[in-house]
Amino acid sequence: MIPAGPRRRPSGWRTVNAAIGGLVAGVCGLVVARALFGRGATVAGVAFGLVALVAGAALSWGLSPAHSRGDAPLPGGHRLRRRVHPLAWFAPVVGSLVAMVAWAGVAHSSGSGWVQAVGALLGAVLITGMVAPLFPARRATVTCTASPSDTEAGRTVRLDMVARGPIRITPRFPVGPAARAVGALRGSRPVEVTIAPDRRGVVEQVAVELATCAPFGLLWWAREVTVPLPRPLHVAPRLGEPGPVDSLADDAAGDAQLRVLTGAGEPRGIRPYQPGDTRRSVHWPATAHVGSLMVRERVRRTDDPVVVDVVLPPDPQRAEEETERVMAAVSRCLVRGQPVVLATVESGGRTVRPVRDRIDLGRRLARAVTPPTRPDPGHRAGPAGARRSTP
């Protein structure tokens, strides 16, 4: 469900921009410090200039664009921001500037050396607090260690992840609430991330935002990454309202070899095991006597299932509604013990096989896609037609 983004290629211009930006910021910081604290404040000017140099180089490196082919958009038009960027930067930056200007006015009017030194220290702390989170944000990583394999659209799913560093994890696709990675100061930190897929499909990786404001909590820096899941997450459609299903006799099926699982009906004998029989139907005394698997024969015919042919429309919303209707209709058949064969179009081609239970039904509908070509005009089944096979 999430297209993989291309690998970023480093650019030599980023290093040049960082060097030029650092030098310009350092010179400007030295000039501003000497203008605010006086010509005799050599220590304050040098400290302020060095801090400005480091801050300018870091900002130039982090904010300069990198050459890449462009990240593939997520469903909904959202693009991953893999480059480190500040979050809600206006208030922290403006507040820090106001505090530094106010303290500079106090230091200029008093003329005391210790006031100037405290002002330089304050400026260094503010600039460091706003720039320092950029580096742990670039190094932050997260790995998913455990995830379920099945869920339903609209339900929350818990993912167990391991993060390196004190970061905040916010799921972007599928969406979910933010989670904090807490634990030891060093090493890995376990964190539980909750997502809520709003549509059916197969989720193989999730997009999350990794943000940090360490060490002083002045400014948040973040970047977005994709985290692969240990196993695919099948998101079944919601249980909608079962609508009308077109039925017709399929005389072309004949004596089909396709067997349908069923546990209903009265026993009428013992027969050898065939592919498709459930384990609950195995007759163990007869198996021990004969030496091969034997199963109970049921009165209900197992070669006369209801075949549901699912053809999804191109519109995503209509396709979602169609799968919800099929989910409700087929679930009723499974509850009654009626055998169902589901025909869907998946990424690997057309698939026709029996539905074992509701979990299998949800997985089949999660993998269903719109057919690449239009169906045959002579095909009488509707968007989700059902046909009963007759021998």
What does this structure look like?
Helix 2 (42-63) packs parallel to helix 4, helix 3 packs antiparallel against helix 4 (113-131) and helix 7 packs antiparallel against helix 8. The protein folds into 4 domains: 12-68 and 87-131, no CATH class; 138-235, Sandwich (Immunoglobulin-like), CATH 2.60.40; 237-264 and 302-391, no CATH class; 265-299, no CATH class. The protein has helices spanning 12-37, 42-63, 90-110, 113-131, 134-139, 284-290, 316-335, 358-367, and strands at residues 85-87, 141-146, 150-152, 157-164, 168-173, 179-180, 188-195, 201-212, 220-236, 249-250, 267-272, 294-298, 306-310, 340-346, 349-354, 384-389. The protein is elongated and about 105 Å long. Strands 1, 3, 5, 6, 8 and 9 form a 6-stranded mixed β-sheet that branches. Strands 10-16-13-14-15 form a 5-stranded mixed β-sheet, with helices on one face. A 3-stranded antiparallel β-sheet has the order 2-4-7, with no helix packed on it. The model is unreliable at 3-11, 65-70, 246-264 and 378-391 (pLDDT under 50). The longest helix is centred in the first third of the chain and has 26 residues, at 12-37. By secondary structure, the protein is α+β, with helices and mostly antiparallel strands.
